[in-house]
Amino acid sequence: MKFKISQQLQNIIIEHIEHSENGIAVLDGDDVLIFCNPKFISMFGLQGHDLNNCNLDELLSWMYSQGVGIDIGDISLQEWLVQVHSQYRSAEFRSFELKLKDGRWLLMTEQVNSTGEVVLVGNDISNIKKIENELYAVQEELERQAWTDELTGLYNRRHFMYRLDGEYHRAMRHARPATLVILDLDFFKKINDQYGHHAGDEVLKNFSALLRANLRKEDVCGRLGGEEFVILLPDTTEEESLNILGRIRAALMQQDMDSIAPAFEYTFSAGVMALKQGKSCGLDAWMKMADQALYHAKKTGRNKDVLYADITEEGSS
């Protein structure tokens, strides 16, 4: 249904557009700016530019040269213009978000009329984006808490087992090596009894930081509980895993733990189980074998690394 628009109604509409909180602009069929309201000018920092007979590319190029308006990141002007024209006039109606140089966000709508004019409308959604970002940060923190051990910042048992399951099946599928190491701090109960639980917590945090500092980016480390830790070493053989553990031990010897007590030191024992390439053993069995190797390390003197393969050879000899 079409209404007959009186001069009075036209004046009302024009006044509304002029004072609108939305930025509004119209470009003709040749993409020359034929109208924009004051809000559009202030949104894009166009106060210092002569907008008469200014086409879209000139407008965008001027904003780029003045460092105002749209934030395009670190790409060049030409790359940006190519991106703009790949989407501009691509549909009768589209909406998209823009980030401005001053940090504000706009929701833009682009309407192509039947006669070829383009109507652009910008709505400031900065507050909405702020709330979205805050909610996203809260969600990320809740997720982090769900899979992180609170004291040490390492993965908790549940998330580590999830990662271990994925790596186990990847290693089986591609016939790749992978090594599992379970570590236990030696005589940890004595540390708690002699120096207090606060000192014990400091040791746990110190050891966790030591592991993070001496493992590779692709390695996965977690705390199983108490003084027991676990490391997943993808694409790593037994020999390579022992070299990594040797590096951790060397770093541990250099630790200054005088904050707990003068000349204080601690050690750890480790059980190592390496998957044979393409040979399936099952996830639970993999954990159990590494745990058996750890038990052997503690039973035979502690402060050592024991391969599961070595104790099975001992048992068969």
UniProtKB/TrEMBL annotation:
First-tier enzyme category under EC: transferase
Annotated EC: 2.7.7.65
Gene Ontology MF annotations: diguanylate cyclase activity
UniProt domain GGDEF: residue ranges: 176-310
SUPFAM superfamilies for this protein: Nucleotide cyclase, PYP-like sensor domain (PAS domain)
Top-level taxon of origin: Bacteria
Listed GO biological process terms: cell adhesion involved in single-species biofilm formation; negative regulation of bacterial-type flagellum-dependent cell motility
One GO cellular component, as annotated: plasma membrane
Known catalytic reactions: 2 GTP = 3',3'-c-di-GMP + 2 diphosphate
Record protein name field: diguanylate cyclase
Organism of this sequence: Aquitalea palustris
Organism placement in taxonomy: Bacteria, Pseudomonadati, Pseudomonadota, Betaproteobacteria, Neisseriales
